[in-house]
Amino acid sequence: MREPDKRAALLLIGNELLTGKVRDANTQPLAELLFRHGIALSRVVMVGDERDTIVQEVEALASSYGWVFTSGGVGPTHDDITMDAVAVAQGTHVVTHPELAAMIRARYGERCSEAHLRMANVPEGSILETTEGGPPAETREWPAVRCKNVWIFPGVPEAFRMKLGILSAVLRRHGHTSGLCSAAVFTTQEESAMVAILDQLVREVPSISIGSYPKWFDETYKTKVTFDGESEALVKDAAEKLVARLPAGTAWFG
Amino acid sequence: MREPDKRAALLLIGNELLTGKVRDANTQPLAELLFRHGIALSRVVMVGDERDTIVQEVEALASSYGWVFTSGGVGPTHDDITMDAVAVAQGTHVVTHPELAAMIRARYGERCSEAHLRMANVPEGSILETTEGGPPAETREWPAVRCKNVWIFPGVPEAFRMKLGILSAVLRRHGHTSGLCSAAVFTTQEESAMVAILDQLVREVPSISIGSYPKWFDETYKTKVTFDGESEALVKDAAEKLVARLPAGTAWFG
Predict the structure, then answer these.
(1) Is B41:B8 a contact under the CB 8 Å cutoff?
(2) What is the Rg, in whole angstroms, of the alpha carbon atoms belonging to chain A?
(3) Closest CB from A18, A24, A116 relative to B24
(4) Rg of the Cα atoms in chain B
(5) Residue of A nearest to B116 (CA)
(6) What chain B residue is nearest to A117 in terms of C-alpha separation?
(7) pTM metric for this prediction
(8) ipTM of the assembly?
(9) What is the tens place of the pLDDT at every residue in A71-83?
């Protein structure tokens, strides 16, 4: 793996997302996992099942971000073109991975068809990642496919989440353990009533990223204010400062 | 409005999305609405609350797509920088819109503060769009802000959905009434078992976009196959062909 920097990008692939048939469920759990491991998800792009578009996007993202993830377009049917597109973007081509092919044959036995075996097609040079770090055959795990800095994940949310378990283990093995801390304050104050207080706080604690999110139609609070930073003490301190500066009884910790 | 083409893009703005604190809820309803009106959402990009990044994205999208939407970064606090960024990207700057300022003053009365009035700041030349097509003061509606081909929507999902009502009315007024039709077939067949049938169908009905989506851990079906096209008859015909070619009793219409 190339020296990993701390920035990541995600490419969501699928006409079903762009036509509103399906609501993306993969960005949020990946974003949360990366945040916890101290890697900043900086950009998410959603495109349709068009080979040239995917090639172009993967090229652009893989050259700018240390960690790139694709979601979707992995499978045996005509619209599953991600493996091929990632291969082209990374300057290589698709080959049958013997270890994956052996696993597929073992799983499907006599029912194993050519369509099943297409699932063993990956960009040449791809690595099979597992939670244990060992080869899939020994760890008895269905692996995640990584081609250089591009992780090729399935789009089906249940399958995507399984790959996140592998990613999390790999990140821990590479020492990405201490991520950012986060705190939240909920308040019955309207966002517009807190502008001066928030502006002041932003200037006071430049190392903390402060976000302010109004909630509509909620009886319990009007605004949520979030604090992100590398130091738990500073994050906590900033959140406490805000609560102390708001009218008594109008704010509490999330 | 410039002669609208049929392609759209959406820019989602907000650190809360990229850190996994919040799951995007705006892409799916916008995608569905555009699809229904025959406009193809072709690209969605998600970025953080960074002014230069937003300027760059809006520039790129506004020059390539007839319809561009931004979601988020609209409000009175320090991280609300979308109005400014869209203005710069469109070669102009932010001004106080007198009609919006009057509406804000009327709504908040004596409580109206400078922070409230910041919500009247929009890119110069922006149009206030309403469901009726008349000025907001007459239609008594909170308008949607459009700067050339860029619609600036709030990120809060409840507020975003209100703007979709306005967008839908505008699309109808511009004659975007007949969109694509869609049909779905659910089947207990595995995706890998249908590859040959689907490949054949894709060749037979080139005007129909066919998608195949495996469902995991569902007791009722294994794969959903979708059909999108401009002709309701052709869409229906393609879906019926698939059901007829699958084993009896394994597939049904969605």
Answers:
(1) yes
(2) 22
(3) A24
(4) 22
(5) A192
(6) B192
(7) 0.84
(8) 0.83
(9) 999 988 877 899 9
What is the residue whose two structure tokens read 């597109």? A85
A115 to B193: CB separation less than 8 angstroms, yes or no: yes
Q: Tens digits of per-residue pLDDT, B76-98?
A: 887 789 999 999 999 999 999 99
Cα–Cα distance for residue pair B205/B218, rounded to 1 Å = 29
Per the listing, tokens 């760059």 go with B56
How far is residue B170 from each of residues B10, B33, B151, B174, measured CA to CA in Å?
17, 12, 12, 6
Residue B47 vs residues A45, A69, B12, B35, B118: alpha-carbon distances, Å:
9, 16, 6, 24, 23
Mutate to test the interface with A, among B7, B17, B21 (most CBs of A within 10 A): B21
Residue of B nearest to A46 (CA): B44
E-state strands within chain B: 7-13, 40-47, 67-71, 94-96, 121-123, 127-129, 144-147, 150-153, 181-187, 209-214, 223-229, 251-253
Interchain proximity B78–A198, CB inside 8 Å: yes
**Can you give the pLDDT at residue B228?**
87
CB contact under 8 A, B211 and A29: no
Question: Which residue of B24, B39, B46 is the best one to mutate when testing the A interface, meaning the one whose CB has the most A CBs within 10 A?
Answer: B46
Looking at chain B from residue 127 to 156, which residues have their Cβ under 8 Å from any Cβ of chain A? Answer: 156
pLDDT per position as a tens digit, A25-73: 999 999 999 998 889 999 999 999 999 999 999 999 999 999 999 999 9
